[in-house]
From TrEMBL:
Residue stretches spanning the membrane: 6-23, 35-56
Protein name: NADH:quinone oxidoreductase/Mrp antiporter membrane subunit domain-containing protein
Keyword Membrane: yes
Native organism: marine sediment metagenome
UniProtKB keywords: Membrane, Transmembrane, Transmembrane helix
Length: 80
């Protein structure tokens, strides 16, 4: 669920960059201003969830235990 949410937020953030880079005329974007709220909201949500997971790792059901188990398997060579 976390990876799905992260992927959706990243897709929302990066979609407008892809459209501007590959489908817009190059002379259209000569000046740059502040980012639109559609660009800022996915970044802000990702930052907020990252901060909350860092401060309160045990508030979400079994997320910290799952991460510790995965890290233990990978670092011991069991997950490679």
């Amino acid at each position: 669920a976390t990876f799905l949410l992260s992927g959706l937020l990243n897709a929302g953030y990066l979609f407008s960059i892809v459209v501007r880079a590959f489908f817009a005329p190059s002379d259209k974007f000569t000046k740059f201003g502040e980012a639109s709220p559609l660009m800022v909201v996915p970044l802000a949500l990702t930052a907020l969830f990252s901060l909350l997971l860092g401060i309160f790792p045990d508030q979400f059901p079994y997320l910290y235990q799952l991460a510790a188990r995965v890290a233990g398997n990978v670092l011991s060579g069991g997950g490679l």
